[in-house]
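Entry 14. Ran structure prediction on the chain below.
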Amino acid sequence: MNALGGEIGLFIPGISYHIRANASNPAYRKAPRGLDKNGAFVVNPGIGIVYDNRNKEDGSSFAWSAMAITFKDCNDRAAFAVGLGGNYRYYVNKYFSLHGDLYISAYSAQDWETAEYHTSLMPFPSIGINYHLSNMGNLKGITVGMKTTFSPKNGKHSSTGGFNLLFSYLYIGYSF
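Output, structure tokens:
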């Protein structure tokens, strides 16, 4: 592994899905960016950064990584996560790769009733697909992708609304 090389990327949160939210078991109906009347689908804007200590010469491989993100929760309040973890990237060919990762993160969000911030350690596993802009002139080393992260419900955080969640992200990275 090259200690000075790796990949740095930005990820942009998109839509969250509250698993099993429906008319008889709604999530948060007052969500400012809710896409349905039961609060099952909500837009959660934000931005995150990730560093992946991967030697791109290794091809399909495991690497450690670190991430930090801030985004608006379903009640339009700031939420934060900082984590360390590992990931595996499998190259289908020189253009496409699949990856899975697992971060153990310090997650902090504001309680909707008391306005106090609560922080806890939470696991965040993800799966994704990437397109590598190889052999495209000045774009060599650029990766674009999508990923889905599972967020387990946590009684300390009203931001999870008592539901397990799936978050979608867009990703753009640069290998050096």
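The chain has a mean pLDDT of 89. Will compare against last week's run tomorrow.
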